[in-house]
Fold:
Amino acid sequence: MKKWISMLLTAALLLSLGTAAFAEAAEELQEPDYSTGTPWMDIDLEGVVTEETETSPKEDFALYANKDALLTLEIPEGYPYGGTVMDAVLQNADDMKNMFLNGSPSSHDGQLAFDLFALMMDWDSRNALGVAPLKEQVDIVEAISTLDELTAYFLEVPTADQLAGLWGSGATTDLDDSNRKILAVSGIGLILGDSAEYSELTDYGAIKKAAYTELAEKMLGKLGYTAEEAAQKIENAYAFETLLAPGLMTNEEQRRPDYIVRINNHYTRDELLEAQGKLPILEELEQVIGFPETDDYLVMMPDYLAKINELYTEENLPLMKDLMIVKGVLNTAGSLDRECYEWAYECSNAISGSTGMLDDETVFSSSVAGMLPWPAAQLYTDTYLKQEDKDRISAMVDEIIAAYHGILEEADFLSEETKAKAIEKLDAIDKRILFPDSWEKYDCAELNFAAPADGGTLWEASRANTEYWIRKEVKEFSDPVDKEEWGATPDTVNCFYDAQTNSIYILGGFAQGKIYHADMSDEELYAKLGAVIGHEISHAFDSTGAQFDKEGNFADWWTEEDYAAFQERNAKMEAYYSAMHPWEGQDLYGSIMTGEACADMAGIKVMLRLAAEKEDFDYDAFFRAYADIWLTKDTLQMAYARINDNHPMAYLRINATLQQFDEFLDYYGITEGDGMYLAPADRVNIW
Structure:
């Protein structure tokens, strides 16, 4: 799903130092014995592995393969984790910084990126402006005295100038017809992130609340509020979010495979008009943003729509205003003067466990890529990426897809009818490797803002950028979805599968360094980038991807019996991960991990098929290289964040994946009674 364009202008610069409130909360979290995980301890957590920790490939392969590296690995300053993937992040950050410091733009779009970078670096201008533009927006909200005036605010203030919203809306791709766009209505993001935190605050939630509260107190104080007034506003903001939370799905619910079914609620215009009640949702979409009137809308969270309509009252007006103000100051702190920027840095580091402060050039080069993704991406591609690497990786993708045919054909739980459709979908996957073949679709010719030399400011440029993306979204709404247009930029340090275009992205920012280079051995290439490619292909057939057909439509292409068998396998996978504990007393949510875990296992399975065709293939080198790609060291806060991630923790991506395969068990002589052994009847590899 595309993110709402109106959310592009958020605090892109939050990273930083710890606070007193954080230190207190973190101290309380030192009580558990983090070495008590089952069936394996969380070796990714900083401090768990020591020189005295014993290793054996038969008991804990991740520990055996990565112990020496973990003992010397340091979490880089300014980041919440270290390891192989972080090395790619660091290289990307360094490359982006050098691109802006040493390069020169030769196009309109390139100049936009360089001008935005210069505006971010212009502390004289930012400090002179201070919080004045934010205060102007806050004062408008403060002046609202009736519910009618709040409604007028949403209908009269341009979206780019609104402090914060009480619902989400915008255009997205229709789940049922991936060739068309649809207007969607959703909930809002909460300050603490997860609606479950508002019924029972977790340890990690307490850390986030302390950090956000401290940042909000400082920002409100700088805007002229007394300490008592600031405290009341923050209390009101959390109080209103507590009222809203029951209408929002929890993070766990949003990451479950049935999320797609739950959000796919089509309303006619009359039905939405009735459901919105007092809320001016349709009026804002049409009169303020400029979308045309249609007769088909996607209401992603009907419970939230009912809840906010119920709470949209004169009585709750002070709470709603204070929530908008608190969220506004939190979202914009990093875009203001140096003091606010450093406060935002402190807040983010308190939440992530990072220490220190990255240099401005590193932060702002990344921020430019976030706000002007395609101008920055073309500069990055021209500077760092090579056609020969694109060709080599594309050929490997073809090889892996061909091998994946065998996996689908051998799936004994599928009928021939479903197998045929699965293979059709496999062959229809669009390969998006490193960078696009053409840049015509991605220009920003209609975007302009003043450079520093012309008196421009970061605030004004950010506003112009937000307005541009909104205009573009409205202008293109009535056009068919351009399925050839990339949904991610080449500089991104990631790979993924997009179900609505049935495409895989193997992006240039990820295929770097230890993950991919031209001189890799077959063993290393297969275990690292090869396994990732296999992983992304298999997302077409995981618990979420399986709900979309080869055209990217949310459609049932399975026989009833086959899908029931597939769901049984996913249920077994869910139970398998739910029985694991990174440390005693800490549960995992197997319900959200089936897709990513399925993809990890299928990625290794397809590469083992290719390895079997190689003469003298070194399986030890292959398995060690696979362990190396997931080499990770986390701060405690990062470990807590990963518990709610649909990706298994890194050490589980190694151990839980490899123990599914006879090739691994046989090579290391792992048998019943060993910690790495998993009996054939207990294995959960779906494909």
User: Anything to note?
Assistant: The radius of gyration is 25 Å. Residues 131-336 form a domain with the Neutral endopeptidase; domain 2 fold (CATH 1.10.1380.10).
